[in-house]
What we know:
3 copies of one chain form a homotrimer. Chain A is built from 12 helices and 9 strands. By secondary structure, chain A is an alpha/beta fold. The model of chain A is unreliable at 1-7 (pLDDT under 50). Helices cover 38% and strands 14% of the residues of chain A. Chain A has 2 domains: 22-140 and 296-309, Rossmann fold; 141-293, Aspartate/ornithine carbamoyltransferase (Rossmann fold), CATH 3.40.50.1370. Chains in contact: A-B, A-C, B-C. At the A-C interface, α2 and α12 of A face β2 and α3 of C.
Amino acid sequence: MSASPDTDNRIRHLLGLDALPRPQLEALLRRAQAFAEGEQAPQALAGVAVCTLFFEPSTRTRLSFQLAAQRLGAHVLGFDASTSSTTKGETDLDTFRNIEAMGVRGFVVRHKGDGAVAALAQAARPGTAVLNAGDGRSHHPTQGLLDMLTLRQAKGEDFSKLKVVIVGDVKHSRVARSDLHALRTLGCSEMRVCGPASLLPDDDTLHGCFVTHDFDAALEGVDAIFMLRLQRERMSEGLVESLDDYHRDYGLTSARLRRAAPDAIVMHPGPMNRGVEITDEVADGPQSRVLRQVANGVAVRMAALEALLAAA
Amino acid sequence: MSASPDTDNRIRHLLGLDALPRPQLEALLRRAQAFAEGEQAPQALAGVAVCTLFFEPSTRTRLSFQLAAQRLGAHVLGFDASTSSTTKGETDLDTFRNIEAMGVRGFVVRHKGDGAVAALAQAARPGTAVLNAGDGRSHHPTQGLLDMLTLRQAKGEDFSKLKVVIVGDVKHSRVARSDLHALRTLGCSEMRVCGPASLLPDDDTLHGCFVTHDFDAALEGVDAIFMLRLQRERMSEGLVESLDDYHRDYGLTSARLRRAAPDAIVMHPGPMNRGVEITDEVADGPQSRVLRQVANGVAVRMAALEALLAAA
Amino acid sequence: MSASPDTDNRIRHLLGLDALPRPQLEALLRRAQAFAEGEQAPQALAGVAVCTLFFEPSTRTRLSFQLAAQRLGAHVLGFDASTSSTTKGETDLDTFRNIEAMGVRGFVVRHKGDGAVAALAQAARPGTAVLNAGDGRSHHPTQGLLDMLTLRQAKGEDFSKLKVVIVGDVKHSRVARSDLHALRTLGCSEMRVCGPASLLPDDDTLHGCFVTHDFDAALEGVDAIFMLRLQRERMSEGLVESLDDYHRDYGLTSARLRRAAPDAIVMHPGPMNRGVEITDEVADGPQSRVLRQVANGVAVRMAALEALLAAA
């Protein structure tokens, strides 16, 4: 439901990857690949205003969307709702409707509440498009798309023979959920999930995944490793004993990486905790695709903004 | 004096509506109406730099001006002087002159001090234009203009037969003062003002107005209701007993609204305190023009920026 | 070393003025002069993305660079790393590489650490240009350039007969260091430096300068006076007794100014402490070039951005 294709198969909002059909997901990836290769569309959104409306701050994701929108010729407005003193007790919906009434047509929204972005999309006028830049633990669709693009660039378009592993705090991760949605849609055959029991979800997130707490075993022969960031608050919450323990059990080192396929790629959504979930050697090594992911992020966001907002 | 038309009737600064002659006020409204209907002028301010210089923060007003300036092709710079640590004890005038010296030609200034924006305009070089985005309790001319535009769209250009009421904390409201200036200029015949005695001014703000503390009476047969925001600090200042009391006496409910003319419109400058000065039912009801006001805000600001800054 | 001209004499980064050869420094000044006189290049950086990456905040310097980049047609992104909560313990280098990976080609970087900007430039990819917007006490090359441009406009291109004095907290001043580098490169014959012993450096910064603690003597017959800002923390650090004492000994008053050549010019990098290092009368007087410096700042930054980033 959350991808909301309308009758002519045009995507109206991009809220999650769970309901984005494979043809539309692949069309976004093909277009993003073209942008990644240097395709220009400097007038695609000429005269269109896009607002990055962040109820939860994230400078890097905001900059990536801003750059993508600028490269398409849009006017970009930034609204950092987390620090604005001027919302003055106004509801999120009133803030959204207000900016929409100014004539802004594209909204890039981040929110700490699950479902909060979809709720704004639900209230949007015809002609307004909402892109989810991350809500709660639920969705981060452009991160999922950029991870898929990075994986295709390394391994080709056929995911049916790929073995991948997602490692770390899957429980609290919208990145992991969006990756899993997309991997399923694209027909990945072997999805492994690895982390301490305290950081793995007990809902249907892991449907169809092979789940293990043994990182060494999880890495055997995989083609791609999706590392997740460990939030420091997991320690104070008692979910992780210590950074040292976490690194010993779930840190990706060069030695461990040798268990994966020789041409396996390593991804991380950033920002990285170097020395915790990943060592410098791996983060900066030849198998790392961390900076490629960032570059692909702009390409994917250009594709998504264009798909939702360019004149038909 | 504050509208400062120069010898060729061109407005130099837009500081207040008290001295803006009717022909110039109506010209701005006509141009704003054209923008509201979709008129484009994407090159009108090409190469012109505009700075939103806010000594008092207001994200929404800043965004509205930013969008207006972008739609005219201006370069827009934001200077949030309320949080900038870099002014480092510098005077407001030095900050202004400094940005002016960079080649910025348009200044959108908000300031908590009455007269502070006019003081900067006084010091401006030839060729620099200052737009008041709100100073103290005194002026908020673009809000007054957008309210007039909203009223004209609903009731036509002839205000001579209109009955209007302004409700709430008129004493501290630059919105109310700017509305009253414009209503007088446009020949409105019956201006009512309603609020608790503690929130009504005792100066000449209310000249020519019918003043009452009885909201029900004030609403009888009016064509337009200008609701004002109740600042929460009025409670701690002892000017208002409680939000409940205020709502009972001066909150606009559906029941009360029926006292007005059947096609009366309801306006509010936002952000709204839902459940205090206005109920959800009214705010979101068919007579509400709240979001239309926001849309008109961009149109009015485009007209003002163009009038002051476009090449003659 | 820090100016890094590459094999075709193109400047790759602008990190300091100590190693910028005279022909390239003069070429920048000539181009800046053309911009100061109204030369336009609205497409020079079309499609190029520039990020102002400030690890130390400075609204005015950031705005000046932003305006310069906009006037050349660049897309400008702002990253205030000093307040961003999203760097989340990430290293400065990871932050830089991340934004670089997004496709940003120009970086305007300010940092409180000496050498920190050069370290990022060292790690930059081919095609990426770094402009130092101030690091520690070391370099502020565009300030040095704008001061030289201001001096040339007043005194002509031949600095060999000029007498100049730099006054104040030279010890902690990157502005003073950049000015001294440029003055030497341009062949200034008589550089005087004046300030209390506690605020003068004991390293080779003052090589070739005439050093004195006597402000009256230092002013005799000079053609240009470079005043420096007194940071208030010098009092708590015990380096300055009181603002009054400092003003008495090193404040530039009209009376003192008469010791200089009759057509001497007065410069200050701003923001000014009026009544401390400079009086209102001097700051706003006919010999002050303070606002001219600000205007020249945009021109110099346009020249630098163009030199580093425009297509060859």
